[in-house]
Specification:
With about 280 residues, this protein is mainly β. The chain has 2 domains: about 110 residues, no CATH class; about 120 residues, L,D-transpeptidase catalytic domain-like (Beta Barrel), CATH 2.40.440. About 10% of the residues lie in helices and about 30% in strands. The chain has 3 helices and 17 strands. The strands form 4 sheets. It has an 8-stranded mixed sheet. It has a 5-stranded antiparallel sheet with strand order 6-5-4-1-7, with no helix packed on it. Strands 2-3 form a two-stranded antiparallel sheet. β2 and β3 form a beta hairpin. It is globular and about 55 Å long. The N terminus is likely disordered.
Length: about 280
Amino acid sequence: MRRVVGIVVALAALAGCAGGAAEPGPAATVTRPAAVAVDKVAAPAPMPAVDLSTLPVADPWAVLPAAPVDPDPGTMPSGLLVAPADAAGAALFDAPSGTPFAVLPRAAYLGDTSYPVVAQQGDWYQVLLAVRRGLPSQVGSAGVNEATGWVRAADVTTSTTDLSIRASLSAGTVQLLRGGEVIATSEAGHGRPSTPTPITRTFVMSIYPDPNATYSRLFVTFGAHSPSLDSFLSGPAPIAIHTYPTHSGAISNGCLRIPADMLDTFAAVPLGTPVLITA
């Protein structure tokens, strides 16, 4: 019996149940992360301020060889539009973070307009312009239209439109579309071989009356220009939709001639509405 009691006392002592002080256990392991050297990367320097007063205005009178060429002139723009946030306009660059070459005005001619976006890179938008890259007599017909420029997102406001205008020279028609659905179609005359209508994408730059033109109450004027005329009536030569007594076939100086009863349909679109002219 005495041997059994001794075994029980020994087991109790090993389990820490004895009345005496227990031996201290090993200290808890503390893990501390090793110091990591962090490379300090400087934030990108902000774009320097652009003095707009030193730059030409990108209006229909401007000829800007530095303007980048439209990357896809045969496709209708998406309907995303931008407009300068400041009344003084927004700087136009030849590439994202590139060199400024002109000022994008709020009003290209009469009335504040918006400009279709054709590409985007980060905080930069590439937009269609209402200028010429060169005069026809100097650069030929292929070097006139399809001028674009890049603007900083911080310098513009954005909007969208689901309206667009599509002209087919071979079909002799001009159509108004909403969301890709044709909502109006008109017969349309177009440019003669010597003064052709440009095949390109552009936008409605301005809608205005011309008191000197008795044949049309309004002109729905595009940002694209005649590829053959340096000037027209002592000014630039933008293409327009307007009325005329004859409005079929290759009969104009480049404009799209429509019947008088169709004018109000096309004159009701907002400025900046995308336009696609096809062969």
